[in-house]
Amino acid sequence: MLNRHILINRKTIILETILTITNLNKVYNKYVHAVKNLSLEIHKGNVYGILGPNGSGKSTTLGIVLNVVNKTSGDYQWFGGTMQTHDALKKVGAIIERPNFYPYMTAKENLELVCKIKNIPFTKVQEKLEIVRLTERMNSKFSTFSLGMKQRLAIASALLNDPEILILDEPTNGLDPQGIHQIRDIIRLIASQGTTILLASHLLDEVEKVCSHVLVLRKGEMLYSGTVDGMTNKQGFFELKAKDNIQLESVLENHPSVEKITEDDGKLLVYLKSDLASEELNQFLFQKNIVLQHLVKRKHSLEAQFLELTNNHQSN
Ligand code: ADP
Ligand code: MG
């Protein structure tokens, strides 16, 4: 099915599917199972992060859908299967390797050469150089560029044909903090203009800062897929303190929303399995004759979630 229709407030919002991956597997050299039964959907307008430690199969997955790595089994489909992979990839901008241009040509000349090869009007060069903030340096030779500038030029180049989706593999690797900041700003700018983005990263804060959606991979397996907000909101926890924490704990143990309770520095940390508002909890306890001295609701950071997810899946 090409589109999913969702009815919100009587308006139909069409979620255009950019990429569908179904039960994808990749085995290198007969025994390295780099991607395990991966299924996912990429919808137009979102910024997706594939998050996972080194070796979790991120680059392999991107390589397969970009047709530079052969899959072992499973399927993927671009744009709802309306076109052949070869044609579909003309609507995809991707940077999966270190940026490489002609060193003795300027930034502008390099991009104009890409335009010639891909039959794109030269007017796009200026437009894309502005997005990546390289207009001032457009007449400098590529060889004089810092790694951050090279990466930005690569992004400009990938954007020349106004792709439907931009794919980036570890876009800030090797950059200094300022370079990292610039790239993240540019990614957010491109996303705000409506381009769908799929980026792979082993950095939690990168995904948290620039992505709307996250797919967590570990050893080729997907552990979580959903919104970044959903992941951070999913299992909030309370910090509670009462005069009698033992009584408090015994009352809480029977509450249907409570997953587990631990103690830290005289406070009970109450982890939730379903959402529970502070007011609701407070009222519940008050009815059981418990008056709280301290109540704070906290959310796990994505980092805590990520560590929890990866620690809980060490089955092989
Ligand atoms: P990531 O991008 O998440 O770091 P990769 O997709 O590069 O992960 O690698 C996933 C697994 O596949 C790793 O165990 C890696 O060693 C292995 N791998 C990647 N490329 C090859 C290859 N060309 N030949 C053999 N094994 C590979
Ligand atoms: Mg990689």
Automatic annotation (TrEMBL):
State the source organism's domain of life.
Answer: Bacteria
Q: Any idea which GO molecular function terms this record carries? A: ATP binding; ATP hydrolysis activity
Give the UniProt keywords, A-Z: ATP-binding, Nucleotide-binding, Transport
Q: What is the lineage of its organism?
A: Bacteria, Pseudomonadati, Bacteroidota, Flavobacteriia, Flavobacteriales
**What's the protein here called?**
ABC-2 type transport system ATP-binding protein
In what residue span(s) does the ABC transporter domain sit?
Answer: 19-244
Q: Entry's InterPro entries?
A: AAA+_ATPase, ABC_transporter-like_ATP-bd, ABC_transporter-like_CS, P-loop_NTPase
| Coiled-coil positions | none
Family annotation (PANTHER family): ABC TRANSPORTER, ATP-BINDING PROTEIN
Which Pfam families does the protein's record reference?
ABC_tran (PF00005)
Family recorded in the similarity comment: Belongs to the ABC transporter superfamily.
